[in-house]
Amino acid sequence: MASNVMRKVSFRSLASHKLRLVLTVFSVVLGTSFVAGAVIFTSTVSSAFNSIFDNVAKGVSVEVSATGQQSSGIPNSMVDDLEKNKQSLGIARVATGNTGSVTLADASGRAIQTGGAPSVGISYTAPDKAVGEQATVVQGRAPQRSGEIAVNSEAAEKGDLKVGSKTKLVVGAGLSKPMEVTVVGITDMPSSTGGYVGVLFDSASASTLFSDGKHVATVDLAARDGVSDTQLRDAVHAHLAKLLEQQGQQIDLDKVYDVRTGEQVREDQKESINQFLTIFRAILLAFAAIGLLVGTFIIYNTFSMIVAQRNRELALLRAIGASRKNVSRSVLLEALIVGILGGALGLALGIGIAAVMIAFTESQGVPSNGIEVGVGAIVSAVFVGVVVTLLSAWIPARRASRIPPVEAMRESTVEPGAGSLRVRTLIGAVIGVLGIVALVIGGLGEGTGPALIVGVGALLAIIAVVLAAPAISRPVVGAFGALFEKPFGTVGKLARTNAVRNPRRSAATAFALTLGLMLVVIIGTLGWSFKGTVDSAVDNGLRADFVVTGTNNMPLPLSVADYVTDAPDADKVVAQAYGAAEYDGKDVYLSSPYGGTIGDVASITMLEGTEQLPGDGLLVSDTSARDNGWKLGQDVTFVSTNGENVETRVTGIFAANEAIASMMVGWESYEKLVPDVMKRISGPVLVVAKSGANADQLRTQLEDATAEFLTAQVQDRSQFKNSISSQIDQMMITLYALLGLSLVIAVLGIINTLALSVVEREQEIGMLRAVGTSRAQVRRTIYLESTYIAVFGALLGTVLGLAIGIPLVRTLAHWGLEGVVIPWALIGGTLVGAAVVGVIAALWPAVTAARTRPLEAITAE
Fold it and tell me: 231, 335, 577, 637: which has the fewest Cβ within 10 Å?
């Protein structure tokens, strides 16, 4: 019976305080919506990619391919051997293919933009010789000779290309020059989606462009009747391993070649995209968690105030027979209802958020088959909403259950648990000292270990602030009050009194803003430090007057450097040719100066040896030498992606310079490590002008020389710095946009707290109005109170952000960050913004307070 009565009390309490219910539910909605949006978005994109990969290697029984992306591929001799042993291995048909990245010009001569989707060239195989599904020619015919191509219909439509169109094409790697091509066919490709560009070449042209003529990229096998795909895979794997052994090659087959069934190829490609989506989803959920954490403080604050306002009501319930369990369950039932409503509405808003994200990514070429709202999204939104709300309401519910019945006889009540803060503050101080020690120790080191120590210190510091913030709020807010007491007089003093009256509540309200601004300052410190490193690297590390790079950081074929060299006013032209290899069982990335020595175009400080790089030499930064344990004169053996050992010798060690590669090999070694068709430029082509050359004239010469490469862009030093900084800015803006969720919730929290505070202080406000306080003065009091809380939260967030951001940047010095750059402009704007936020958040509660009727408020029960 008592349980039924308490349920009715809970429902009536919610129904009679609709505004309070809406504010509380909305704080849950904002947090859960981002969780739901993240789950729906990533599952939708994952499903779309999975449907694409379902068509990959379709009809292929077994595929043999190279393990490394920089590999030359499968030797023709191995293909011939498979063809020769078809009968014994159970192979019905053997088909080969070559592929590589390309850039295709549209009808106006500009590169067709893919929005991040692949743009690839593929060798065409006639249907009677192909294994598996191939592109279908829907208009015109298939390419038959050099200079002819067929294009997928989506790319043809985007580029306004038709059968008979003449255009240009650039291969993304190798030594090839821009090509004049004719579109002879339009195709329908199984894997075509979004901004994908698929260009078909005849087999001979694809072999010339994408291989060295001695290798192929893939070998597709069809099994004979009665032979399963798995049986064929095992037979081919065993045969190729034996073949390598007979040829005397001491190579582990699985390290160089992949022998997989068509189903394994599809699953591996799905796994690769799902790994990326898992990371992306983790990032989105991390920001959702921040929003939920901020929301937790708001919900906790709300229920604490609700319980405080209902002390007499709950005590009366105890007096007429309700047990402690009945009271706590009543409060938790209200929280459960709020959580269910917030979770359900959060799911609806999450679907909208996911729709916006999917629409944006579709415009960038990412595929989508429409929004998919799975069971996982529904469960996660409702579950998170309910759990977060119940946890947030648990402590207030316990407090409510402990209210003695005798409290019902009193005219006023004090919120339970609002006593001494001494123990809480002492614990916070101890944890804070431990956090500071961890931050200092971590900030003195470099690398992953110190970064983890900084992370531990950050967690301890946040916990310390949560515990000690109520005690800190009194002197800090008191100082604000002293500043505003003169211009605002009694109003300023009253606002200060209200702000410190309940330090727990003020601190909890401010902490919502503290957490958001702490992350803003940390991200700002990282971003500004990265930009400072870039500026320093370009200003102090490069001598070049101009740089030539690929748009959107796309690689350029090595032949671009040869074209740049032809510019009459270019004195020195050096590119860094990119390559990959293996050392001591680990993948390493290296480069080789092409066109001259690196010292011709970059400032390099030699610590040992010489910058002159012999053909088999190895020039490394001091950090790379330290990490790998290399000494001057030491022999270092790299393993190419084809499994060949390439001997080099350390001939020079230089001070790490972010403008140049940390590991450079001589050209002779580079050619052994990297096949011609895989040679490409990493970073910019660096150009030093001749003495007395006109800068504008040289720019024009460089633009003319590289125009045919479609994606090449010419920049001076300032433009180059700005282009890199703009990428950092875009990343920071994206992170700030995600953090905006927590800031919105924080503002909502201030509004919520002030609105409930106005209700709580109705009699007091009525008394002030009765003794002559004007409506404008009441509004100003609420404005100032809100501003004090907001600025206090912003100050805490700024100090906490700097305390974490500075040592975090120092730990990243190992990866190239040169020093800490504090974003003072951002911090100043943040503090001013916090004051503005305080005023904005107080607008509605202040108007509500000003409308309080003195007589009704004084006589209200």
Answer: 637
Q: CA 746, CA 749: separation in Å to the nearest integer?
A: 5
The helix (run of H) or strand (run of E) holding residue 63 is strand 62-66
SS3 content of the chain, % helix, strand, coil (to 5): 60, 15, 25
Contacts of 559 (CB under 8 A, 6+ apart): 174, 175, 176, 177
Tokens standing for 324? 């402690």
**Token digits of residue 573:** 């032209």
Residue 151, helix vs strand vs coil: strand
Query: Which residues of the chain, if any, have pLDDT below 70?
Result: 1-7, 9-20, 31, 52, 54-57, 115-116, 174-175, 190-194, 250, 291, 308-312, 315, 363-369, 400, 403, 405-420, 552-553, 738, 741-742, 759-760, 815-816, 854-861
Q: Where are the domains of the chain?
A: 53-272, 474-542+717-861, 555-710
At 806 the pLDDT is 92
Q: Say which residues have a Cβ less than 8 Å from residue 291's Cβ, sequence separation at least 6.
A: 30, 31, 34, 741, 742, 745
Which token pair is 665? 């090999």
- Strand pairing class (680-681; 570-583): antiparallel
Residue-wise DSSP of 822-840: --HHHHHHHHHHHHHHHHH
**Rounded CA gap, 858 and 838, in Å?**
28
Q: Who contacts 216 (Cβ-Cβ below 8 Å, separation ≥6)? A: 73, 74, 76, 79, 96, 97, 98, 207
Interior CA angle at 837 toward 833 and 842, to 5°? 155
| Whole-structure pTM value | 0.76
What does the alpha-carbon distance between residue 344 and residue 335 come to, in Å, rounded to a whole number?
Answer: 14
The confidence score (pLDDT) of residue 414 equals 46
How far from the centroid of its chain's Cα atoms is residue 418's Cα?
A: 42
Do residues 33 and 349 lie in contact, with contact meaning Cβ atoms separated by under 8 Å? yes
